[in-house]
Amino acid sequence: MDPFPGRLLAGPPPRFPGGTMTDTRRRVKVYTLNEDRQWDDRGTGHVSSGYVERLKGMSLLVRAESDGSLLLESKINPNTAYQKQQDTLIVWSEAENYDLALSFQEKAGCDEIWEKICQVQGKDPSVDITQDLVDESEEERFDDMSSPGLELPSCELSRLEEIAELVASSLPSPLRREKLALALENEGYIKKLLELFHVCEDLENIEGLHHLYEIIKGIFLLNRTALFEVMFSEECIMDVIGCLEYDPALSQPRKHREFLTKTAKFKEVIPISDPELKQKIHQTYRVQYIQDMVLPTPSVFEENMLSTLHSFIFFNKVEIVGMLQEDEKFLTDLFAQLTDEATDEEKRQELVNFLKEFCAFSQTLQPQNRDAFFKTLSNMGILPALEVILGMDDTQVRSAATDIFSYLVEYNPSMVREFVMQEAQQNDDDILLINLIIEHMICDTDPELGGAVQLMGLLRTLVDPENMLATANKTEKTEFLGFFYKHCMHVLTAPLLANTTEDKPSKDDFQTAQLLALVLELLTFCVEHHTYHIKNYIINKDILRRVLVLMASKHAFLALCALRFKRKIIGLKDEFYNRYIMKSFLFEPVVKAFLNNGSRYNLMNSAIIEMFEFIRVEDIKSLTAHVIENYWKALEDVDYVQTFKGLKLRFEQQRERQDNPKLDSMRSILRNHRYRRDARTLEDEEEMWFNTDEDDMEDGEAVVSPSDKTKNDDDIMDPISKFMERKKLKESEEKEVLLKTNLSGRQSPSFKLSLSSGTKTNLTSQSSTTNLPGSPGSPGSPGSPGSPGSVPKNTSQTAAITTKGGLVGLVDYPDDDEDDDEDEDKEDTLPLSKKAKFDS
């Protein structure tokens, strides 16, 4: 078992990085462990061992390789636990709370020094820990346990040094610690030591006081509850603290007793009638003070030896909470004074701070006890009391009340929701608890909005459907969300609506932007989780239009919050939302922001492109048509991504299917023939044949069975010829338009988008459905994701290739009879085996 379990928390010291010196075998780095549990490098040198007269024993010496100065001089004590780690590390704790490590460059040097240490301690060099008890047999251990306990020296001034050495030597061994603890318990030894403390103080015997410090500190490390109960009793605890004032490492003693008796004052905000409870509170405060302030920072070797001290404090807090909880008179008085308007501000602040600390203590309770605790507070009326306190002007009192409210929400949000819904039946919206919380969030005066962020997190927990209950009789989600959108949502959105009445935010300072970003974050959460409640609210109140005004903010983070809100709505692919967006032309602020951003490659640019890419990839037809019909001229010159050309391609495919329903139905028939799979698994060779066939075929060839081909040829050619005639007519019109106009969306800084009803489609080109040479509708253009490796001639005038689900389209529209004949020839020359497979 590792005797240094705490040290592992800090991790081993760094290993030696290596070097090029000739004498490397004994080359080491010296490390010490600091108060932050980090290893500090004290220098590099060469280690040796030898007898040091001053220390009267064999010692480890490290001299710096730079100037020969002494980096380390440490006596090898017979009772010190040395540990060898990772073949090149030796780690140990010095008696004066000082952890050391030697990191060797070579394993041979580490083994050599390890043998010297083991030789001094009489240990086998094969062990990794010199003070382990694994070499004791079970019989020996049993004999030791059954033998008489440890005999303590008589408690006299002259023997204090002997007692201190006995305590220090017992700590490394669990067995000796056990015997020492039993001896101290049975003989009432601690009280005798504390009597000696008074004698030493009266005589100003500093040496004796230093020994008593080491003894009392060692007793703490024995980790025994029975000893703690004696040391922390009313008659002993101040003397124990007095002993710990005389640290030998300090030139002057500390004044802990003076602080506890004169500076620290116990305030009873409500008189406590139970003397046992009062004594327990005093004891807990003092023991906590000993742990945090009096005891020196424990080394990692000692840290786990104080676990019982932590437990002592923990169970004391549990007892205090339980005793206060059972004192109904105390709690009744507490809440009565909290809500009494006659209570003065200072007194109220003390009461709220007490209640806050009371709730903090409750975090130490077990789940079932915490249930009873919060149920008691609820029955005593903590939520109405908080409502009164939150309505007060004192910011410190409100801050403490917010912390208490956070304990309640985190513990049981349903309890809070039930309270506010019952309250709504009796009070106006303005004084509802949840609206008070929203108002405090909106009115936070902190420039960094620390309180607002905390309150927004609490609101998010309250409106999160994931922690709402559903029972046979009622659904909490339906009831609470109905209440929230009716009574509270208008309060939450008030700052947003007030700031977006014009084309740009009326206030655009940093604090306002931060607040609106918080509101948008909560609204975005609602869009994701609240379905029809938030949908009705957004559409009826025209919220999205107001949110998109924030795209014009000078604060990029706020503009991105607005964009994220819209992106979340589009991500739902809900046609109600889509119709609302199209009817109100709500892509216009986004396109404006995109154009105003120019050629800058930043988060705004990427986020907007990602939104349009989502529409293209998910093939949201209504939004695709809306964007191309209204904003294509503004976006057609964006060629560093293929998103907008891909959208145009999608749009043209939709128009093509709408104009030629026969082609669309024929394409579905062909697709069913080509991609139908038997129920049985295809053999590998057949799978390879299909894959190769799909790759090698000319783009746009229709693959049909002979019977289907003869049956459908006439039906196919008639709409094709009509389509090509109409196409050529549109191309001639397009050329005329190009001669008259020179619109360029990306390059014209004076580009404007109009929202007036008469010009809603002023960006729509007359030829938005036609393909210019080199346009994204052309199979050879970069914007066509389905562009084949080779295309027939005159491809600049061929119709768009159908691409859906990553599959190359099946129909090509030839411009002349020659192309048509070529296609027919190619189909006729297909191998019979392939045709047969398609027929199947």
Topology:
Elements: H1 7-10, E1 27-33, E2 39-52, E3 57-64, E4 70-75, E5 82-85, E6 89-94, E7 98-104, H2 107-121, H3 138-146, H4 160-170, H5 174-186, H6 189-203, H7 206-221, H8 225-231, H9 237-243, H10 256-263, H11 275-294, H12 300-303, H13 307-326, H14 328-339, H15 345-362, H16 367-380, H17 382-390, H18 395-411, H19 413-424, H20 433-442, H21 450-462, H22 476-487, H23 489-498, H24 510-529, H25 532-541, H26 543-549, H27 556-571, H28 575-583, H29 588-597, H30 603-617, H31 621-635, H32 643-659, H33 661-675, H34 684-696, H35 706-740, E8 803-804, E9 807-808, H36 817-828, H37 832-839
Antiparallel strand pairs: 1-2, 1-7, 2-3, 3-4, 5-6, 6-7, 8-9
Gist of the model:
With 840 residues, the protein is α+β, with helices and mostly antiparallel strands. 57% of the residues lie in helices and 7% in strands.
Structure write-up:
- GO terms for molecular function: protein phosphatase activator activity.
- This is SMEK homolog 1.
- It comes from Macaca fascicularis (Crab-eating macaque).
- This protein has 37 helices and 9 strands.
- With 840 residues, it is of the alpha+beta class.
- Among the domains are: 24-121, Roll (PH-domain like); 159-317, no CATH class; 573-659, no CATH class.
- The strands form 2 sheets. A 7-stranded antiparallel beta sheet has the order 4-3-2-1-7-6-5, with helices on one face. A two-stranded antiparallel sheet has the order 8-9.
- A hairpin with a 3-residue loop joins strand 5 and strand 6 (89-94).
- Helix 18 (395-411) packs across helix 19 and helix 24 runs parallel beside helix 27 (556-571).
- The protein is flat, with a radius of gyration of 41 Å.
- The relative contact order is 0.04.
